[in-house]
Amino acid sequence: DSITKVYSTDNEIRQIVDNIEIYAFPVINVDGYVYDYPNQRSWRKNREPFGGAIGTDPNRNYGGCCGDIRGDWGAVDESQASHNPADLTFCGAYVNSGDETRALTMYVKSRVINAYMTYHSYGELFLWPWGWSGSGTPDSIVYARWGNRIAEMINRLGGGTYTPGQSYSNPYPTSGGSDDWFYSWCNWVGGVAGLAYCTEVGTAFYQNTSQLDLIFSENFKALKYLAQLCRDSIGPLIEPKVAPPQIYPIGNVGQSFTIKWHPVNPSENHPTQWELVELSNPNVKTDSLESGSGRWVLQGFTLSTAQHHSGSYSLFSGNTNDMNSAAQTLHPYIVQPGDSLTFWCYYNLENNYDVAVAEVSENTKDWFNVDTMRFTGTQTSWVRKAYSLANWVGKSVYFRFRCMTDGNTLNGGFYVDDIRPVCLFGNVNTVSNSITDTTYTFTNHPVGEFYYYVRGYNARGWGDYSCLAKASVGVGISEAEEQKISEEFALSVSSNPFKERLMIRYAGSIIHDTRCTVQDINLKIYDVAGRIVKQFNHLTNYQSSVIWFGDDDSGRKLPSGVYLIRLESDGFKKTEKVILLR
């Protein structure tokens, strides 16, 4: 209202509106808000039941994408959060288990957003990441410079100005917060120059309504200044990591062939060179750990003989207080139709306080639980677990086991054994790490099956690798056949029918000019009456996936029925029929 009223007369406001996009979410935790007001229950959680209690704290439910397990969802050291469903700071059954946190992360991932401001109450504080660590972010100097300046703009009700600071100590440590997630996802995964701030407004949870206009006007000044920074300064001063690029499908090729990839948000992360790696001789097996832990990257986990399902060894989480430990596969695995992640586990964890999870990621930064499960309590005989990987068919993924403990009662820990599928490539060779184009051509390449991934470099160092692309190199395959493969236009879904979420994978069309231009990609979902109920427009990646949670564009859950998913790109159209079951 303040913006629209003065747009025609205030040049500063007009410049902001004309040059940047502003997305406003008045309330994220709608169910919790409706439950709390007008009865003033001091309720901070949502209203989703789990474990005999009600609600997850949304601001403990987000992931972490900076590569440090201490900043991931579920870290409960230093009382940052809790795994007890009855606690006020319950972090949820799994990362993004809340409808509202999942919706917000999907919204952010579908756009290029450079600045993020959240509002909470209360304390008259102005905060920035990290919440999980007292160490500064790579952009701590910029955060403090602008954070101090903005805090000085906001007058307190009782005099003075808002108190600025890193949220870890101002007011207390937190894990799973949206500010930490936004900053880490933008700068490590999305390749977007992004900053996140948080304002703790007012002096009470239930502020005297006579004071609201003053609070609003003071905070509006800060929001206007942040919008101006977004327009003028964030891009030039913040350099994110180069996002994992989209490598084009290769398929069956002759001995002379070209690999192509598409940078993600290059105008934001400014890649200067690329590294292409060739992998071959994959060995996929059920890992009994009898040959050691060479297929794993261990962060706190160790090879143990104390417990084992087969042979003499298993992987052990450790069992210290305030612990965050993990075991991640060294090499990625390309998921095949019908695949499941299977393993045997044995654990003794303080029930509802210490927790272990199994996770999957395409890039080693953005992790998801393989299912809606967690391991807590006692399981003192070995039990087999199997979880479908249907949502990742055709993707190359890493697997990870992670264990988190708080600082109180300590039990025996988590053991895992006989894990499948675990892939180890016999040969891993860097083709080149000084490629300045987004293509690389092989001539007289040996015959066989080879795999490739690529990563980019900028002033922040090397980014993460793309997913794997497989090349079957043979004799007598023509250039025309190779061209046809790289122009593939594809749409697929899994699992169908679905109840809660549907994975939609797409590959758009390409114009094979000197820039190998990716065409605009639009994904629309129709009901049987032909009405558009959901849109994913202007998708920026040539080949990627989105998750549909059976909702419409306003976030409302749709009823059971038949829906049509249509992919459109450069005149091409493809449609899949899906069934939603409630």
From TrEMBL:
Entry GO terms, CC: extracellular space
Name of the protein described by the UniProt record: T9SS type A sorting domain-containing protein
Keyword Metal-binding attributed: no
Lineage: Bacteria, Bacteria division WOR-3
SMART domains found in the cross-reference section: Zn_pept
InterPro entries: Peptidase_M14 (IPR000834), Secre_tail (IPR026444)
Keyword field: Hydrolase, Metalloprotease, Protease, Zinc
Domain Peptidase M14 as annotated: residue spans: 1-230
Protein species of origin: candidate division WOR-3 bacterium
Gene Ontology BP terms: proteolysis
SUPFAM superfamilies: Zn-dependent exopeptidases
Family membership: Belongs to the peptidase M14 family.
Catalytic residue list: 200 (proton donor/acceptor)
